[in-house]
């Protein structure tokens, strides 16, 4: 008798009790990231990630020290939340020359506005420097270029949440093609929803990336902002199969499907990006029972063992 099982969250094959701490790593969530324990995480890039590239005679070794002017309530932006952002700037000649970064500074964005940053032309720069590039991020040491080529003495508008250019971990998408980080060990919800007792202070359910608690010296690691995951290099997972299970699916390939009803990932042989290889059946099907909780021949959503194909895991 064929059965339709309930899909269940992905688990690590052979992981002992408490073993979620084995081979555990941490990652910074992307702005707005939401995931649950058991999700497959991927590195997500929004926009273009550009870092400083010091170059040009007399420019590449110059560090600007002029303190910029920051206006927290520049342009009205109704949906933009109050934020604490981190930034630095570089000076440019408007072509290819760029200086070293300035000292890091804080941008406190007022709720309902976009902030301005203005780097004045103070006359102490090497000749030919006319513009500045603005690098902004949500954590110290995690800035990326957000505004390029603003004339010195003019305002550069800081893009609204979640910034034009950013990178971080988030739940993988259905039919993901690569950039897989690993298996989520804990729940993460990075939002601006107020929590009970916080009053009007922005926060989130599990950690405080934006404005709750950004204290701590640079280099400590900012553990309170990180999500935990297990590296899936050389690790097998147990995952529910979308299609009806038969032994013939073993050694076939499948893609990822995120089941929004049951909020878990499944292996799906119909996906075009076949990033998994099904290596076996989880459990020993009991042909004497009319229902097997892990599935057997002819069952839908049966549990199978799978591995990610080589070259798809970040850092592998």
Features:
316 residues; mainly beta; five-stranded mixed beta barrel; five-stranded antiparallel β-sheet
Q: How would you characterize the overall build of this protein?
A:
- The two termini are 42 Å apart.
- The protein is an all-beta fold.
- β9 (131-137) and β10 form a beta hairpin.
- It contains no helices and 20 strands.
- Helix content is 0%, strand content 34%.
- The strands form five sheets. A five-stranded mixed beta barrel has the order 16-18-17-19-20.
- Mean pLDDT is 85; it is low at 192-220.
- It has two domains: 1-49 and 165-316, no CATH class; 69-157, no CATH class.
Q: Tally of extended strands?
A: 20
Largest sheet features: 5 strands, mixed, barrel
What is the distance, rounded to the nearest whole angstrom, between the alpha carbons of the first and last residues?
42 Å
By DSSP (H or I, 4+ residues per run), the number of helices equals 0
Class per helix and strand makeup: mainly beta
Q: Tell me the β content.
A: 25-35%
Provide the domain count: 2
């Amino acid at each position: 008798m064929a059965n339709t099982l309930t899909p269940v969250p992905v688990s690590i094959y052979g992981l002992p009790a408490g073993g979620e701490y084995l081979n555990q790593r941490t990652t910074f969530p992307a702005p707005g990231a939401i995931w649950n324990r058991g999700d497959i995480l991927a590195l997500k890039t929004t926009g273009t990630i550009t870092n400083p590239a010091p170059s040009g005679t007399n420019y590449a070794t110059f560090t600007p020290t002029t303190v910029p002017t920051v206006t927290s309530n520049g342009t009205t932006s109704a949906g933009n939340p109050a934020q604490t952002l981190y930034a630095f700037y570089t000076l440019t000649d408007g072509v290819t020359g760029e200086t070293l970064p300035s000292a890091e500074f804080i941008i406190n964005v007022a709720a309902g506005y976009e902030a301005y940053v203005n780097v004045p032309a103070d006359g102490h720069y090497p000749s030919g420097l006319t513009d500045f590039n603005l690098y902004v991020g949500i954590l110290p040491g995690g800035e990326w270029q957000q505004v390029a080529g603003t004339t010195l003495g003019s305002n550069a508008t800081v893009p609204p949440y979640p910034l034009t250019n950013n990178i971080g971990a988030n739940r993988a998408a259905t039919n993901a093609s690569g950039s897989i980080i690993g298996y989520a060990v804990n729940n993460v919800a990075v939002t601006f929803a107020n929590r009970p007792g916080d009053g009007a202070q922005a926060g989130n359910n599990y950690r405080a990336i934006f404005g709750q608690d950004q204290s701590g010296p640079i280099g400590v690691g900012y553990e309170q902002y990180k999500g935990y995951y297990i590296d899936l290099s050389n690790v097998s997972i147990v995952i529910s199969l979308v299609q009806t299970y038969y032994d013939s699916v073993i050694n076939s390939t499948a893609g990822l499907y995120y089941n929004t009803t049951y909020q878990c990932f499944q292996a799906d042989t119909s996906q075009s990006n076949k990033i998994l290889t099904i290596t076996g059946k989880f459990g020993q099907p009991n042909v004497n029972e009319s229902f097997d909780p892990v599935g057997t021949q002819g069952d839908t959503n049966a549990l199978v063992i799978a591995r990610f194909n080589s070259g798809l895991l970040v850092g592998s």
